[in-house]
Specification:
7-stranded mixed beta sheet, 853 residues, 26 helices, alpha/beta, globular, 39% helix
């Protein structure tokens, strides 16, 4: 009791010394917290203004009010994520303070009832009447709303927080946009011509920038118009890193309207007060966003409509809104338009469109299973890796019509009404080489220029006698050249000898001799040129380019800077040396200077978080600022976050939620129980080397685990081929494996730790219990996790049967010691929930046996 009294006295003394400015904490670029407490016993004393990318879990239960400034609309996607996290934390109320319009925007976007309804709900409005001060009072703490839209928090007569003043002195997100755009002004930018019209094409920064598992961020350039597909939350930083001006984005496409990146793109248009266009599968939510960001004059792009800033490009939506198609009219004939298909998101996949039909000219396809590797109806298919499918993509054999999409690579689009008009693009990789003259002569023969069977035979024989392609880029370029020859008029005049020579040449330059991993290793030195004759053929030519002077990257998250403040400055010094060595190309110095300013502000945020920790400790709260990443946007057609919140925010919803939670818990328990039992039964019913008691020689050898630090045996466990490996279980095992070895989790793109794809043959990986696994050729983290999940689950079930047999023999001292040893082995193997369920069931059985009289 005396200790508690001393703690309260220390907290009162700390409060007495707390000045007004000490009560404001900028914990994130977009999030400010104001401490409004007057007494040590004040409950939930914090006020929040803004919603940043990281949600500090421990602070959520200390926040009761959220201020919505009138002239600074929040990112509704981020606000929805904060709201969902607050409700899930178990707090009974969260109060939104602002004008009726601003509060209604949050309410309607989250699917809550009208604010005039009874207020006994988790989220409650506090509406101020226009231009009247002191409408919200908490003890001596007052929020004042000004006629210019400003929000001011006062304690007595002392002004603690002024939103407008805070925005002027802080590096806000809009200032960050302007800083990065100015820095790019002199630099040679991606997909922008130095003179004349900007080229048409697209740029995929890579899987680490995907906002969710089935939504990849891609920037499309249709001349002067920029289209951003599935923007990530900080997409302006991603674009800057790859030399694309964020101001070029005119149109935004996203499956989910609640995705923070989609809402951010619309919020930025509102701040710029520029027109823009957008599409999302949830049209109702888009209407709410358009009302919230009314200054942007947003236009909804419907199925079959032309893009507002690129009238020669029409947008089509598949029947489940999982894919979009760009129809690029290169001439007056609509039937000759170039058709390009790309994935948008959603779990119900469909490539069927109402107004256009295949075959398409170019398709970007998401690789989620082996079925996607089958030949598509498109003339050319470029593959993106689905969640956890990078290993499958790396092992894929290349083909002339199906290739992996290279991350951090610029793809330029060229079109011609006829195949003849593509000839110079097809010849471009051979310019300046010894083969140029022979390739050009052979191509002209196929076009009917001075055709003779003898000259055609000589040209094909010269190509067929060449040595097989020594590198993957040459194989791809020559194979594309040969595909093109087959479509030209000259191919119709081939004799049997000509066809055999062509087949021999195709075998020497067959891309199937290479795997995708060999092409992906060269991605930073290549540029793609896609030549399309609508409805006739599409061809990808790869050309070598000089690497950039430096691979610039924005500063890491605040949490990464807290752990190592010197890592990023070391990178900046390295970039400066590279730029100077390259002759100080235009624009790089300004970009590095801009990144240094961003880093300085991140250091300020680190200090702010440290100050908040000291304040919490002084008040006796002592919460750590552990932050969680943003949840993935709603990608499914069924109930998502919006629907779950609606159930919370209805009068009958609470009872329904309680029943639903109980039903879900029962379903999960039942599913887990019967899944494990089914796995055990499958092993018992005839898997080689298994017995009902788990005492065969193979089983006994399988459960003799190597000690931590020793190399794991490569022998398979009996029955491991019968084990089902659910994707969620493998993902959790893979993340445990990644964390154990210093890699970032597979499903956390923003983490600054090592890329889990960078696992190489000969590497030594520590399994979750400390055993060493040697990486073999062609293996990747996901594949390794899947392999050891099956093996360790099989061992776990063997140990489970052995313990069951021991328990039937009576609890002697010898049996008890053996059970204890088995339990230790099972604890080492139990990593995922399914594995822990097997362990927990057997431990309960041991406890029941010990409790018997």
């Amino acid at each position: 009791m005396a200790q508690a009294t001393d703690s309260k006295a220390a907290a009162r003394e700390f409060l007495r010394e707390l000045r007004g400015s000490d009560r404001v904490f900028q914990i994130d670029r977009d999030t400010a917290l104001v401490f409004s407490g007057m007494h040590p016993d004040d409950v939930r004393p914090f006020v929040r203004i803004g919603a940043g990318r990281q949600i500090p879990d421990a602070i959520l239960r200390q926040i009761e009010y959220v201020i919505l400034p009138e002239d600074d609309p929040c990112n509704l996607g981020l606000e929805l994520a904060w709201l969902g996290a607050t409700v899930q934390s178990g707090e009974k109320t969260i109060r939104y303070v602002g004008s009726r319009e601003r509060v209604n925007q949050v309410y309607s976007f989250a699917g809550m009832p009208e604010i005039d309804e009874p207020s006994e709900r988790p989220v409650q409005p506090v509406i101020y009447h226009a231009f009247r001060a002191q409408d919200l009072k908490r003890d001596h703490f007052t929020t004042v709303f000004m006629t210019n839209g400003d929000a001011v928090l006062q304690m007595g007569s002392t002004r603690i927080y002024d939103h407008h003043a805070n925005r002027r002195i802080r590096l806000t997100i809009d200032k960050e946009y302007e800083l990065l755009s100015r820095a790019l002004a002199r630099r040679k930018r991606t997909l922008e011509a130095e003179q004349g019209e900007a080229p048409r094409g697209f740029y995929w920064p890579g899987p680490e920038y995907a906002p969710s598992a089935n939504a990849n961020q891609i920037f499309w350039s249709f001349g002067a118009s920029g289209v951003l597909l599935n923007p990530s939350a900080d997409h302006h930083q991603v674009l800057f890193e790859h030399a694309i001006d964020p101001a070029r984005v005119d149109t935004v496409l996203s499956y989910s309207a609640s995705a923070p990146g989609f809402a951010e793109a619309l919020r930025r248009k509102n701040s710029e007060q520029r027109p823009g266009a957008a599409f999302t599968a949830d049209q109702e939510a888009f209407g709410q966003l358009r009302r919230a960001y009314r200054n942007s004059k947003l236009q909804f792009v419907s199925d079959g409509a032309s893009l507002p800033t690129a009238r020669d490009v029409q947008l089509y939506i598949s029947r489940t809104a999982s894919h979009v198609a760009f129809s690029w009219r290169t001439g007056g004939d609509l039937d000759r338009a170039v058709q390009i298909v790309a994935p948008l998101g959603g779990k119900r996949q469909s490539r069927s469109f109402d107004y256009i039909r295949g075959p398409h000219d170019l398709e970007l396809r998401l690789l989620n299973d082996r079925e996607e590797l089958k030949e598509s109806g498109a003339s050319l298919t470029l593959l993106l890796p689905g969640e956890g499918r990078q290993a499958l993509l790396d092992r894929m054999r290349l083909s002339a019509a199906m290739l992996p999409l290279l991350p951090a690579t610029e793809y330029l689009l060229y079109s011609s009404e006829s195949l003849r008009g593509l000839s110079e693009h097809i010849l471009s990789p051979f310019h300046g080489t010894e083969q140029e003259e022979a390739m050009r002569t052979l191509l002209f023969l196929h076009l009917g220029l001075e055709f003779s069977p003898e000259a055609l035979g000589d040209g094909l024989q010269q190509l067929a006698l060449q040595a097989p392609a020594a590198d993957v880029v040459t194989a791809i370029n020559v194979s594309q050249y040969l595909r093109y020859l087959r479509l030209l008029p000259g191919f119709g005049q081939y004799s049997e000898r000509h066809k055999k020579l062509l087949q021999r040449a195709e075998s020497r330059f067959d891309p199937a001799r290479f795997r995708s991993a060999e092409l992906l290793a060269q991605r930073s030195r290549l540029r793609g040129r896609i030549a399309i004759a609508p409805g006739q053929g599409a061809f990808l030519i790869l050309e070598a380019i000089a690497p950039p002077a430096a691979e610039l990257r924005c500063p890491p998250p605040v949490s990464a800077i807290e752990s190592d403040r010197k890592a990023y400055p070391r990178l900046v010094r390295q970039w400066s040396k590279q730029v100077n060595k390259a002759g100080d190309p235009a624009g790089y110095a300004q970009c590095i200077e801009a990144l240094e300013k961003l880093y300085e502000y991140r250091l300020f945020l680190v200090e702010e978080r440290d100050r908040l920790r000291r304040t919490l400790n002084g008040l006796g709260i002592g919460q750590e600022l552990q932050s969680s990443s943003l949840p993935d946007p709603v990608q499914e057609q069924g109930p998502g976050l919006l629907e779950r919140l609606r159930s919370w925010f209805s009068g009958a919803g609470r009872a329904a939620v309680a029943i639903l939670i109980a039903a879900i818990a029962l379903a999960v328990f039942t599913a887990g129980f019967f899944t494990v039992k089914a796995l055990a039964a499958s092993l018992d019913s005839g898997a080689p080397g298994t017995t009902l008691r788990g005492d065969s020689a193979d089983e006994q050898r399988a459960v003799q685990l190597a000690p931590p630090g020793a190399v794991e045996s490569g022998e398979p466990a009996p029955g491991e081929d019968q084990i089902q490996a659910p994707a969620q279980e493998v993902l959790l095992y893979a993340n445990a494996l990644a964390s154990r070895n210093g890699f970032r989790p597979i499903n956390r793109a923003g983490d600054q730790r090592r890329d889990p794809d960078l696992v190489f043959p000969g590497d030594r990986l520590r399994l979750p219990d400390g055993r060493i696994a040697l990486v073999q050729r062609g293996q990747h983290l996901w594949e390794i996790a899947q392999k050891f999940y099956r093996r360790d689950m099989a061992r776990l079930l063997i140990l489970d049967r052995q313990m069951s047999a021991l328990l039937q023999d009576g609890l002697s001292a010898e049996v008890a010691a053996s059970i204890k040893q088995h339990r230790k082995l099972m604890q080492r193997l139990a990593v995922t929930p399914q594995m822990k369920k097997v362990l927990g069931d057997r431990e309960q059985e041991v406890l029941r046996r010990n409790a018997r009289p």
